[in-house]
Amino acid sequence: MNWDKPILTDSGGFQVFSLAGLRKIKEEGVYFHSHVDGRKIFMGPEESMQIQSNLASTIAMAFDECPSSVADRDYVRKSVDRTTRWLKRCKTEMARLNSLPDTINPNQMLFGINQGAVYEDIRIEHAQQIAELDLDGYAVGGLAVGESHEEMYRILDAVVPYLPQNKPTYLMGVGTPANILEGVDRGIDFFDCVYPSRNGRHGHVYTNHGKLNLFNAKYELDDSPIEDGCQCPACRHYSRAYIRHLLKAKEMLGMRLCVLHNLYFYNHMMEEIREAIEKGEYKRYKAKKLAGFEETT
Ligand SMILES: [Zn+2]
């Protein structure tokens, strides 16, 4: 990878649970069939920690079950209790792996993941239980899986205050620039999301005046950059019209330029967020940024 910066690895939990129908969940872990060749595979908390230890990431995520956001209360309750038992096994196994003499990253950190679908009381109780385990950081999982943005914000309002305030808090799989601004306002520090790259590959680019679809005919002769003043490699050298031409001609460079711009946009926004927080101006910054996103160009 040639990436000399922190790396976070996911546990495989979410990935296994997205294979509905191909998997069987037991106390020891999950049995599932490879979607490639049908081969039977087992993964439990120990296996997930071992794989992540071999990958030697900076942060390993706990092996959890991500119940569907529409799962019923009884199921979610049982699932969350099992996720807590799995988390304890993850912690024990990570400590064992980190103490071995040939471990590549003996300082690997473990983040726990809060679950509980849309049930605030289950979420809060789970947050209190995992907070007691004194992990390196805490994630909120099982959101951004089909529920409304308002529902996601309601859960964050309820649960984040019960996660340790002196540890990083990570909202998994989120989100749009507006979701990130709202998440930060509720105490979230970390995010991960496919939007900047996936949307970029479809010609959708983020700007301070909303999202543009570069496939639109109105950009055919538009010789301005994606966003005026943006210092990204796409905006410094190429026009909307040229990038649109590349996308229409299915030239890979069109997708690459859109992804470069979007990643730059997200990273730059995170820099601005840190700066605004340090200056004590976050509320004002957020309101101004959100108002800009509502404009159309
Ligand atoms: Zn740009």
Task: Please tell me about this protein's structure.
The chain is an alpha/beta fold and 297 residues long. 46% of the residues lie in helices and 13% in strands. The protein is built from eleven helices and eleven strands. The strands form three sheets. Strands 1-5-6-7-8-9 form a six-stranded parallel beta sheet. β3 (30-33) and β4 (40-43) form a beta hairpin. It is globular and about 60 Å long. Bound molecules: zinc ion. Zinc ion (ZN) is lined by residues 226-227, 230, 232, 234-235, 261, 264.
Number of separate strands: 11
Question: How helical, in percent, are the residues?
Answer: 40-55%
Share of residues in strands: 5-15%
Structural class: alpha/beta
Note poorly predicted spans: none
Distance between the termini: 37 Å
- The SSE order reads EHEEEHEHEHEHEHEHEEHHHH
Average pLDDT score: 95
Which ions, cofactors or small ligands are bound in this entry?
zinc ion
Supply Rg. 21 Å
Strand order of the largest sheet: 1-5-6-7-8-9
Task: Summarize, please.
With 297 residues, the protein is an alpha/beta fold. It has eleven helices and eleven strands.
Outline the fold blueprint.
Elements lengths: L7 E2 L3 H5 L5 E3 L4 E4 L6 E4 L1 H11 L3 E3 L11 H27 L9 E6 L5 H12 L5 E4 L8 H11 L9 E3 L5 H9 L4 E2 L3 H7 L2 E4 L2 E4 L19 H5 L2 H9 L3 H27 L3 H13 L3
Parallel strand pairs: 1-5, 5-6, 6-7, 7-8, 8-9
Antiparallel strand pairs: 2-3, 3-4, 10-11
Helix pairs in contact: 2-3, 3-4, 6-11, 7-10, 9-10
Bound molecules: zinc ion.
